[in-house]
Amino acid sequence: MVALEKIRSSNSGIATALRPGLVAVFAGATSGIGETSLKHFAKNAVRPRIYFIGRSKESGSRIRAELQKLNPEGEYIYKSVDVSLLRSVDNACREIKEKEAAINLLFLSTGTMLSGKDTEEGLNYPVAVAYYARLRFIVNLLPLLRNATDLRRVVTVFAGTKEGTIHTNDFQGRNGSMLSLRGHFSSMMTFALEAVAKNAPNVSFIHVYPGFVKTNYGNDLKGPMFTVLRAVFDAVFPVIGPLIATPVSETGERQLFFATSARFLEEGESAAAGVPLPKGVTVARGTNGKSGSGVYSITNDGETAPHKVEQLLGKLRKDGTAQKVWSQVEEEFVRITGAASV
C-alpha cells in the first residue's frame, strides 16, 4: 500500500521533476474520476496542453473555465465525441495527430451503464464505450506516446487486480452485465494492454481499480426504478459513504500519482521516467510478476495484483486465451473502420 502522504509528496514534485509543456489526452473527462483526475493534473503540471474529451458541450465549457482558474498558464482543448462509435474516436485522434508530434499521457475513464442495445457499428453499447473505444484511443495515439522524450504513459481506470475467467464464446459480454462480468472484462483489458505494450516498450500501461467512488456514473439511466434507487442511495450515502467510499478529490490525487510516478516505469527505463520515488516506495511489480515490466494492474492504493491473479493470467497466456482477446479486438477494428488504427 502506498500511503496517501507519499502520494501527495510525489504529486507536489511534478512541477520540478517533469518538464514544462506536457501534453495529455483525457477521454471521459467531463464527470467523475476523469474530471477530478484532469483537474489535479492541470493544477500540478507546468504549462500543460490538455485535450479533454466527453459528450456534453456544456460540461466541456464549464470544465475549461475551471481549468483556466486552476492554472492560467495551461492550454485546454475540449472535444465533444460520441465514444460509442469507433469512427468518431478515429476522427478525434486524427485531429490531435494533426496538431501534436508527441503525447506524454493518455488517461482513459470512458464508461456508461446504458445497456441492452448495440451501437450502429454492431458493438454491445457499454462495452463499446468502456473497452473498445479506450483501446482505439490507445492504438491510434500510440505513435505520439512513443515520440515523447520523457513521460510516456497510459492509464485506464477500470477493474485492475480483479481479473478473472474469460468467456471466449462471448467476448462482448452480451449474456451478462459489466458488473457481473467484471473478472472477464478486467482480464480482457489487461491482456489488451499487454498486446499493445509489445509494440511500445518505452510506454508504461496502468490498469487501475479505483475502489468505490461516489460519482454521477449511472445518471444516464432513465426510468422510475432508477430514479427511486438514486433517491435511496443519496439518502443513505451521507451515513455509509465515509466508511466505504474514497472521496472524489482524493481519487484524483491517486490517479495523478499513477500517471506520473516512477513507481510505474516503462520497461527498461530508469527511475527518471516519472517523478522520483518517495522514500520507502519501490518500483511496482508488473502483470508478468516482474518488477518494472511496464504493464501494471493495480488497486486504488497503488498495490499490484496478488499472486493468485498473476497465476491466472499466466494460465490464460499459456492456453492461448490472451492472444484470442487481442485478435478479436483487431478483427472488430478492421470490420468497423477498415484498418487496425489511423
Could you please describe the fold and organization of this structure?
- This protein is of the alpha/beta class.
- Helix content is 46%, strand content 10%.
- Strand 2, helix 4 (57-70) and strand 3 form a beta-alpha-beta unit.
- The longest helix is centred in the middle third of the chain and has 23 residues, at 125-147.
- Mean pLDDT is 90; it is low at 217-237.
Summarize the structure in short.
The chain has 342 residues and is an alpha/beta fold. It is built from 11 helices and 7 strands.
**pLDDT < 50 runs, ≥5 residues:** 217-237
DSSP strand content: 5-15%
Helix/sheet category: alpha/beta
What percentage of residues falls in helices of 4 or more residues? 40-55%
The coarse silhouette is globular
Question: Which strand order do you get reading across the main beta sheet?
Answer: 3-2-1-4-5-6-7
SS element count, helices: 11
Number of strands: 7
**Average predicted local confidence, pLDDT:** 90
C-alpha end-to-end distance: 39 Å
Order of helices and strands: HHEHEHEHEHEHEHHEHH
Major sheet: size, sense and barrel closure? 7 strands, parallel
Radius of gyration, CA atoms, in whole angstroms: 19 Å
